[in-house]
Design brief:
37% of the residues lie in helices and 15% in strands. By secondary structure, it is α/β, with parallel strands linked by helices. It folds into 2 domains: 38 residues; 111 residues, no CATH class. A 5-stranded parallel sheet has the order 1-2-3-4-5, with no helix packed on it. The chain is elongated, with a radius of gyration of 18 Å. It starts with 10 loop residues before the first helix and ends with a helix.
């Protein structure tokens, strides 16, 4: 009996395998196979709807995903943890995520102008925005300025979740 090729497995089996992995793991492991049928399965699985920039993968792995594997046009939810905020800023701010509705910036130590620009560039689609500070947050004024800068642009915002409840930036709402 000849060995079976991974791509010859039935679609239901492949989707079952995907269900045990994170979207990033599925894309990193299988996204560069360049088979149209497989790419359709990844889309059906929803592997492109959610993007999480965290320590789950290395910067090099995220770089590989961002160069031809991720379908930025399908991303609806994006989570970015502090250590990757500069990676996020590196994305072209010209609406590279046209379907982005949920953005979570977690454990920020300080915010940058580039991060504000990224949020503002996606203000026409973001409806849910979460931002939390790191325990090592050292720039409270900068964090307040960040919210004051971006909030007037988030016209479609339905939900704002922040841990800055006792500060003037939240009273701005």
């Amino acid at each position: 009996m000849a060995p079976a090729h991974f791509m010859s497995l039935p679609d239901l089996v492949l989707l079952e395998v995907f269900s045990y992995l994170s979207c990033e793991d599925v894309l990193y492991a299988f996204g560069d196979l360049h088979a149209f049928h497989f790419y359709d399965l990844l889309t059906e699985h929803g592997a492109f709807r959610h993007m999480c920039l965290s320590s789950q993968l290395s910067r090099h792995q995220y770089y590989i995903l961002s160069n031809g594997i991720w379908r930025f046009d399908l991303v609806r939810s994006l989570i970015c943890k502090e250590m990757f905020s500069d990676f996020l800023v590196g994305f072209t701010p010209c609406q590279i995520f046209p379907s982005l509705t949920e953005l979570r910036l977690l454990f920020l130590r300080c915010s940058s102008e580039g991060l504000s620009d990224f949020v503002i560039a996606h203000s026409s689609t973001i409806t849910h925005f979460t931002v939390t500070r790191s325990e090592q947050s050292y720039n409270q004024k900068g964090n307040e300025k960040f919210l004051h800068t971006i909030l007037p642009h988030l016209n479609r915002l339905k939900l704002l979740d922040t841990d800055w409840r006792n500060h003037a930036s939240v009273r701005y709402l």
